[in-house]
Design goal:
The protein is 33% helix and 13% strand. It is of the alpha/beta class. The radius of gyration is 19 Å and the shape is globular.
Length: 267
């Protein structure tokens, strides 16, 4: 329930790997403890909360009631829709039912990760559970997508801090992503870009062209069509990102065409 005037946040987990939460736990400015103890009131989060069972359910319903119309709902994971959504249940309710119920009293919804934004890995063909993203189910609430698998935690934190500071949502692109983080293609700021422009491409993993840091385009890099700030913001405060450590971008911040194709190519 709202504490010290801090806005209530309810976080639901559906079909996912918890990588988005795990990534957020490793952020350092602010740390997750500063965020949840000083800036927001995280009233329900299945991975982080101490309570379990009926106690946890009570916290969820108390918060939804006390903060009706005001809380921020964060969704991590896709929502299965086939067979009335029986593939994902928490406390006897399907993800579909829980989302619809929690969305009703939310001021805004943040879909964290590619699963919650577009269905993600769970929705790759043949998508046996009918997994979809939040925006495919909820049509009457502001929804901010923070895609990535996992997304950069600072894209999530910046969105939350923007909302807390300015009391409004940041400007979004046509896919519901904050433009400050997803407004440019990673190709535009990639350190391998001079090799791309000069036509120097890595031919195989581990060979001299790869070891010399040549462009990964011919190994399948989707950077030229992927909108994200990975090449600028980087990850884990150590300056690394997929392309810097030698792996092509698989377009994990993009919906079907890029990301799902890249995943399908690998399985
Ligand atoms: Fe895991 Fe990726 Fe889904 Fe996040 S978006 S929960 S990292 S599968
Ligand atoms: Fe572009 Fe990928 Fe080459 Fe970087 S490695 S320059 S993102 S194609
Ligand atoms: Fe994802 Fe590509 Fe960034 S795979 S993490 S969008 S470099």
């Amino acid at each position: 329930v709202e504490k010290n005037g801090n806005p209530a946040v309810i976080w639901l987990h559906f079909q996912e790997c918890t990588g988005c939460s795990e990534s957020l736990l490793r952020s350092s400015h602010p740390t997750i403890s500063t965020l949840i103890l000083d800036m927001i009131s995280l009233d329900y989060h299945e991975t982080l909360m101490v309570g379990a069972g009926h106690q946890a359910e009570q916290a969820l319903h108390d918060s939804m009631k006390a903060n009706h119309g005001k809380y921020i709902l964060v969704v991590e994971g896709a929502i299965p829709t086939k067979q009335n959504g029986i593939f994902c249940k928490v406390s006897g309710r399907t993800a579909l039912e829980s989302l619809q119920h929690a969305a009703e009293g939310a001021a805004a919804i943040i879909a964290i990760g590619t699963c919650a934004s577009y269905g993600g890995i769970q929705s790759v063909s043949p998508n046996p559970t009918g997994a979809v993203g939040v925006k495919d189910i909820i049509k009457d609430k502001p929804i901010i997508n923070i895609p990535g698998c996992p997304p950069n935690p600072y894209n999530f934190l910046s969105t939350v801090l923007y909302y807390l500071t300015f009391k409004k949502l940041p400007e979004l692109d046509q896919l519901g992503r904050p433009k400050f983080a997803y407004g440019r293609r990673i190709h535009e700021h990639c350190e391998r870009r001079p090799h791309f422009d000069a036509g120097r491409f890595a031919k195989a993993y581990g060979d001299p062209t790869h070891a010399q840091g040549y462009c990964l385009y011919k190994l399948g890099c989707k950077g030229p069509a992927t909108y994200a700030n990975c090449s600028v913001q980087r990850f884990n405060d150590v300056g690394a990102w997929p392309v810097s450590i030698g792996h092509p971008c698989i377009g994990c911040t993009e919906p079907d065409i890029l990301f799902k194709t890249a995943i399908a190519e690998k399985v």
